[in-house]
Amino acid sequence: MPLQRRAILHPKRRHAKRFAVARQRSGDSPRVLSTPHPVEVTKFPSRPDPDVLSEAIPLFLIFRNKGGLWVARESEGRVGGVFLRKQSALRFAQRNTQPGGCATMFLSECFELDIENKGNPLVARLGVARQFLLGLAHRFLKWTHDRSL
Questions:
Q1: Could you tell me the residue ranges of all domains in the chain?
Q2: What order of strands is seen across the sheet that includes strand 59-64?
Q3: Which H helix or E strand runs over 146?
């Protein structure tokens, strides 16, 4: 009988599973690690009144993040994604509400996606790389300016 893929665990996963089972048996509770910075709670705008937009119609928020990428997020936080183009974000919203469609609300403020990215995973990494390169360019320009003085 051939082995199924799930039957073979990666060594690190196997160790993590054994550790979790041993901790449960010994009665240890998992420790909560403190974060160095306070966690910011993103406060998205509230849904329009039912007189304006029926509760039966799904609402997607379309906005940009601090890296300039487009984000589509369902107002209740069930699904969301990061995209390079605005049209891609709109298409994502339409695809996730088929066949009935959805309402969209464009936000002028910058927010970050607070749920798992179901959009383009490469674009999210591209945004991080872009921020890194901009930081390097800024430091390089400052360094060349300081040397010229």
A1: 59-148
A2: 80-83, 70-74, 59-64, 103-106
A3: helix 121-148
